[in-house]
Amino acid sequence: MPYLLKDLLPAKLYRQIALSFTLSGVLIVLFLGLITNLANHFDHVEQFDIKITNVSHNIQYFDEVLTMSARMAALTGDMKWKNRYQEHEKLLNENLKLSETLLPDAIVIIQSINSANNILIDLERDALQLSEQGNLAAAQDLLFNSTYTQNKKIYSAGLTNLIEQIEKAHL
What we know:
α2 (11-76) runs antiparallel to α3 and α2 runs parallel beside α4. The chain has helices at residues 5-8, 11-76, 80-102, 107-132, 136-143, 146-170. The chain contains six helices and no strands.
């Protein structure tokens, strides 16, 4: 004849043991849920970090593409550089807008980058137009004058600040 645990123990002790096992089971389930939630949160944070790092690197890369494309067109007169410029200008603007969405705390820095970028793009477009017209000397003057150089410095400083803010957020 098999004996049941509840038959061997006093009723009060049996209830305490059963309650302990039940509470332990509930705590284990809650703890596993918490661990799963934390893992999902860390995965989301990691994906965000990757995305914003990619955006900041894209901004830097596309800016370099635009600068070099405009300068190469002004130096060589070859309009393949204008085509390259136009392909990447849209990508730079998209990444700048995305950075505003992803980093609302950095809006002042991003606006500084955008402001300098708008001036640079106007100068580069003018230089590309002059290059297309065969006026390479005037195009070169636009891309190497003090206004262009000053805005390039503002843009670069803003981008450096943005990257530093992103890196600080990772810590």
